[in-house]
């Protein structure tokens, strides 16, 4: 499929070798009473702006955080599987319009209405794109690492915005841990992520359905990090090896692949 090809090419041209790294404060509130984080604000913009922005961050790793090549809007629509054009019917459609709305949203979504993404039209070539508000590089552990296989294996296309939100939070909670080691995520922890309980539960259920995460009730888990009392709690795990070695089952274009939970297929 075109989407799979474009995602793999994007990772190759990004120059990255392993992960996209985001500072802890991008996802976890650092101050008492903080009502949002950059990640929760990105989630609030919707699925398409969220995926588009994270992909542009992946592609623009070095200052001045600009794309090397200008790209038309339908390029991104085909990359995310929102539509696929062909020689017989090359006219961009609903998927491209979704991308255009996402660019407009990101153009004024920063602090005080600043542009998170800017575009300079190049006639006949699309637009040259820059990311003026780029997440800061981590200065200390823990931090979020987003594996490049999220793109190259097509997973970003089958995740909803809420599943992607939960996934990035779990990447921070489980930073540096092997797949066999999990962690309890309390309601207090979720408040620090500025994520609603319903969003968390539904997003995690989707990750489980895709095989990217799992949960288990376990005994002998501390109620919190200040207590020695042990309780029965749900422990969350990520299946990072599965994500890295398995291609997502990309749905056909015409609607968002993330509106339903899909299976996955091994290999190509």
Could you explain how this protein is built, in words?
It is a single chain. It is built from 11 helices and 9 strands. By secondary structure, it is of the alpha+beta class. Strands 5-7-6 form a 3-stranded antiparallel β-sheet. Residues about 250-268 have low confidence and may be disordered.
Tags for this model:
268 residues, alpha+beta, three-stranded antiparallel β-sheet
Per the principal axes of the C-alpha atoms, what is the gross shape? globular
- Helices, by number, come to 11
Rounded mean pLDDT score: 89
Beta-strand proportion? 15-25%
Q: Structural class, from helix and strand content? A: alpha+beta
Please estimate the helix content.
25-40%
Number of strands: 9
Strands of the widest sheet, in order across it, are 5-7-6
Beginning-to-end CA distance, first to last residue = 11 Å
Helices and strands, in N-to-C order? HEHHHHEEEHHHEHHEEHEE
Largest sheet: 3 strands, antiparallel
Query: Which consecutive residue ranges, at least 5 long each, have pLDDT under 50?
Result: 252-268
> Compute the gyration radius: what is it?
19 Å
